[in-house]
Amino acid sequence: MSNNTQKTGGWRTNKWIRAAIPALLLHCSIGTVYCWSIFSQEIADYIGHSKGATEWAFSFAIFFLGMSAAFLGNVVEKDIHKSSLIATICFAVGMAGTGFFIWYGGATKVVNADGTVTGNILALLGIYLCYGFIMGVGLGTGYLSPVKTLMLWFADKKGLATGLAVAGFGAAKAIASPIMQSLLASLGENGIWQMFLILACVYFVMMFIGHLLLKKPEGWHEPSNSEEKPSIMQVIKTRPITNYIGIWLMFYINITCGLALISQEKAIVKCLGLAASIGIISTVSAIFNAGGRLGLSAWADTMKDRNTVYKIIFIVSIALTGLTILTGGIANGAGNMGLTVLVLALIMAVNAGYGGGFSNVPTLLSDNYGMGSISALHGITLSAWAFAGLTGNQLATWIVNNFGEQVEVGGYMVNPTGYQTVLYVTIVLYIVALLLSLFFVKPMKEEQK
Predict the structure, then answer these.
(1) What is the model's pLDDT at position 114?
(2) Distance between CA 183 and CA 39 in Å, rounded?
(3) CB count, 10 Å around CB of 59?
(4) What is the pTM of this model?
(5) Rounded to whole angstroms, how far apart are CA atoms 219 and 224?
(6) Looking at the domain 238-443, which fold is it?
(7) Does pLDDT of 447 surpass 60?
(8) Is the CATH code 1.20.1250.20 the one for domain 13-215?
């Protein structure tokens, strides 16, 4: 160790230990919220409620992620240690509480004389409260807490740094899924609620270590309460208001379109006659999702205007969606190698663009509005995620339920016409997003930077 390193504190001033590792510990923990789909059916069966009813827990979690980020952004701005501790406690308590209410639901459900099961409504509401609201607050504050710190430590590679953390959030499902499935198999009949209690302890330890390590660079000065700091609206108005509206809307549209297609991904794969390969294709699409978060944000570091990444995302999505519509790729893909490759390319591109859209938002905002209030501004922008979480899946489900009809493909009942119809809506939205990116989100003038 050099004298210079000793004087500056060694590991205490190491950007990987003080920013990158804590960010991964936090994001790889909270990112497991996306594992809900793996065990939602088991939870529904255990507590005696429908799968549709239990699915709302995930929707509420994403909604409160965005809204807590929007309303608690100022807390993150002022004190990342307070916000990361709030995230740690809320996420662990919410997960443990979910386990408790699953146990309570299983213990109080009533088996009727005709064999049907009536679930306890309090158990379902308790899961909504714990997984949806309490964990949602932990998700929002945990998602925001390391982002500004990463950009400060990695000032020359802001995209790479934020992409690394956000990729951790995206990859968490791929990492945690086999662990959770193994736990469920080994714990037996009551494994579903016991798993939540075990994971609550594991993630508390991981996030608490991240909380302890997370620290802004010594040279960065946050204004004290006595110092005047511009409000978020004052910051936004430093550029034309349409600029921020454009960023918010194109972020919202990208998430909505991504969720609309990703939520139907397994059914679309069945339409192609590839039901036996669903697991492999899902894993590959998750890799594209995480790769888009890291790769597209790192690539944006080399661009003069970071908004160029969004233009690329939208143009590629429009092109592949248009080709799939013109060829009827989903409906005609079974047994046709060319169309199958086209539809799979669309799925991978949308996953990559969905992930890349997330990782480039904080750096795009910092390029446009500076670092001073980036946590609060990023938090407000994440409200787009909240609303997209309530509209993306539901939009696709409504279209599939109201257009086309179920047909058998490879032994599975699917609705190719319905999935094709989803593409008509997403291509229009992608075109709107591209227009916003071209005409609303203007590049910074050299003298403004």
Answers:
(1) 86
(2) 12
(3) 19
(4) 0.85
(5) 15
(6) Growth Hormone; Chain: A; (1.20.1250)
(7) no
(8) yes
